[in-house]
Amino acid sequence: MSSAQKNLSQVEGSNIPNGKGMRIGIVLSEWNSEITGALFDGAVKTLVENGVSKDDVIITTVPGSFELTLGSQFLCEDKSIDAVIALGCVIQGETRHFDFICDAVAQGITNVSLKYNKPVIFGLLTPNTMQQAQDRAGGKHGNKGDEAAVTALKMVALKKGL
Ligand code: DLZ
Predict the structure, then answer these.
(1) Which of 19, 64, 66, 143 is the most buried (most CB within 10 A)?
(2) Does residue 5 lie in a domain region?
């Protein structure tokens, strides 16, 4: 579903599990830092608003989105971390670089998630333009960092409840 039609952080707002006691890793790409910084701020704010202690948010940065997979794996190796949120932004260019990075991250973090049996949340923006990125990083389509945080809380609660 396109994010123009659905802002998950608003739609699912009433149903967010309390994150008290959860430890959440965030891996943040330095490329397009104006965007990834906004995603990060949204994710941390949402985690803290929903009961996660700031001390339980473990942050690491990687040079670009391609490195989000390995950064996620480093965080997953820490047994105390319940879930990882991977945040990046790849803007469509004129070459196939975009496709290679996006495909690699999607596949990579899926593999890490399954290998460690932990939620690794796909917080990678893949817009055509910088404007589309801004619209989804605190602009008119909300903040996908918030949505990634909500997804992390839901997946940790799901696992703890099983
Ligand atoms: C090289 C590159 C390019 C062209 N574009 C982006 C981008 O839009 N967003 C992003 O997060 N990273 C980009 N990178 C860097 C790659 O993700 C990666 O860091 C390098 O290819 C080194 O592995």
Answers:
(1) 19
(2) no
pLDDT digits (tens, 9 = 90+) for 70-85: 999 999 999 999 999 9
Identify the pLDDT of residue 95. Answer: 78
pTM over the 0.70 mark: yes
Number of domains in the chain: 1
User: Domain span at residue 136?
Assistant: 24-161
Catalytic residue annotation: 97
Ligand 1 atom with minimal separation from the 88 CA: 11
Within a domain: residue 19?
no
pLDDT of residue 72: 98
Query: What is the Å distance from ligand 1's center to 69 Cα?
Result: 13
Cβ 103 vs Cβ 97: under 8 Å: no
Query: What is the per-residue pLDDT for 1?
Result: 45
Q: How far is the CA of 40 from the centre of ligand 1 (A)?
A: 18
Does 4 reside within a domain? Answer: no
* 48 within domain boundaries: yes
CA dihedral 90, 93, 95, 100 (to 10 degrees): 10
**In this structure, what CATH number is given to the domain that contains residue 134?**
3.40.50.960
Contacts of 101 (CB under 8 A, 6+ apart): 64, 65, 66, 90
Q: Which atom of ligand 1 is nearest to the CA of 97?
A: 4
